Amino acid sequence: MRPYELIKAKRDGKRLVPEDIRAFIEAYTSGVVPDYQMSALCMAVFFRGLDSVELGAWTRAMLESGEVLDLSDTPGVKVDKHSTGGVGDKVSLSLAPLAAACGVPVPMISGRGLGHTGGTLDKLESIPGFKVDLPVSEYRRLVREVGCCLIGQTASVAPADKKLYALRDVTATVDCIPLIASSIMSKKLAEGIDALVLDVKVGSGAFMKKVEDARTLARTMIGIGAEMGRKVTALLTDMDQPLGRAVGNALEVVEAVEMLRGRAPADYTEVTLALTAEMLVLGGKASSIAEARQKLEASVADGSAVRKLKEIVQAQGGDPRAIDDYALLPQARSTVDVVAPQDGFVTGIETEAVGLAAVALGAGRQRVDSRIDPAVGFTLLRKVGEPVKAGEPVVRVHYNDPAPVEEVKARLLAAYRFGAQAPAPRPLVVERLE
């Protein structure tokens, strides 16, 4: 089929044959098919979906659009984690050194901010000098010698996904299960892993707002993994409010380091430990989740986790002193508080609205080529279930450019809900699938 015919066929709900899918994705990767035609096909997929045969072909074409890395010279079971994205989700920054400190090799190819969610690469780059664009040879060496490497997609690894990831972000086709599943799995399977832990977010700040949709996405990715011979475990985790208290790149780095020192908010600590424990079990470093938790808590207590983070930072060109001296990280020039309009409790937070407020402030991208400000963001002084008094600060805004601040404050205040009674707490880990 010609591109026009393929787009029209999917728009009309017809099944695409694998050969046509592969040809279209190859042509898009090489630049023969332009962005506007891929955008049209993505929108057709958004409304019409992909069946299991189409999805398998789509994922394999994305995977095989570039190099599939071989890490067989690194001993042990290579395990990675992937999050579907949330607000304040800095888990990878703590999880990778935690798992590596416990002996699990962690090859991690991450992405940048997408829609209202933050990106691991943007957070890492707020550490002075940290390089995420290492060559594949260096990636292999660091996984083997350091036990972990965190990079962005190279030109040779899943290049189709790299192009499509940025395009989806600006064409309202992010929250589509087939496109999410194929994007994640093509990238993860290309990085040389043996097993994968999925953090599928669910709630107002997730792309999957409902548990049943998150479950469908998790099962879709587990199925792709099984077809490709990889063990995949998924946790559905709560994103009905931001994770932790920091939102914004450098602010989240600080909170991630604090977690490795045992001083982070309880919700962020719990989700990180739950996901990393799954990695230790898949990696053969613990026989049970309980044993894995003990090892992780010991690595925090004895300082080996934070030492591993410093080793990773230094190996990737960053300044390890910033892990001890947060003043070396980007700092916003000014702060202003958003205050509670009434006495009572925080009864809810529209988390996606908080993420979009962060984008408006400059912490995320409004266009593919937007520059982000790593210093800006929010500190959530009150979260769901916590008491407040009228006039008391609930969010602190860290900013450089004063122009968007009033709009951002209005967005944040509108995102918060207040009431006379505290709501019942929600479970952080909603469900586990394998």
Give an overview in words:
The protein contains 16 helices and 13 strands. The protein has helices at residues 3-11, 18-30, 35-48, 52-63, 91-101, 120-124, 136-145, 159-169, 177-190, 211-227, 249-260, 266-282, 289-301, 304-315, 351-361, 405-415, and strands at 79-83, 106-110, 148-152, 195-202, 231-238, 246-247, 334-339, 344-349, 377-380, 387-388, 393-399, 416-419, 429-433. The strands form four sheets. It has a four-stranded mixed β-sheet with strand order 1-4-5-13, sandwiched between helices. The chain has a four-stranded antiparallel β-sheet with strand order 6-9-11-7, sandwiched between helices. α5 (91-101) packs across α12 (266-282).
Q: Into which percent range does the helicity of residues fall?
A: 40-55%
Number of domains: 3
Rg, Cα atoms, Å: 21 Å
Order of helical and strand elements: HHHHEHEHHEHHEHEEHHHHEEHEEEHEE
Globally, the shape reads globular
Strand residue percentage: 15-25%
Largest sheet: 4 strands, mixed
Could you tell me the number of beta strands? 13
Short descriptors:
434 residues, 4-stranded mixed beta sheet, alpha/beta, 4-stranded antiparallel beta sheet, 3 domains, Transferase, Pyrimidine Nucleoside Phosphorylase, Chain A, domain 3, 44% helix, Pyrimidine Nucleoside Phosphorylase, Chain A, domain 2
Q: Short summary of the structure?
A:
Its EC number is 2.4.2.4. The protein is of the alpha/beta class.
Give the SSE layout.
Blueprint: H1 3-11, H2 18-30, H3 35-48, H4 52-63, E1 79-83, H5 91-101, E2 106-110, H6 120-124, H7 136-145, E3 148-152, H8 159-169, H9 177-190, E4 195-202, H10 211-227, E5 231-238, E6 246-247, H11 249-260, H12 266-282, H13 289-301, H14 304-315, E7 334-339, E8 344-349, H15 351-361, E9 377-380, E10 387-388, E11 393-399, H16 405-415, E12 416-419, E13 429-433
Parallel strand pairs: 1-4, 2-3, 4-5
Antiparallel strand pairs: 5-13, 6-9, 7-11, 8-10, 8-12, 9-11
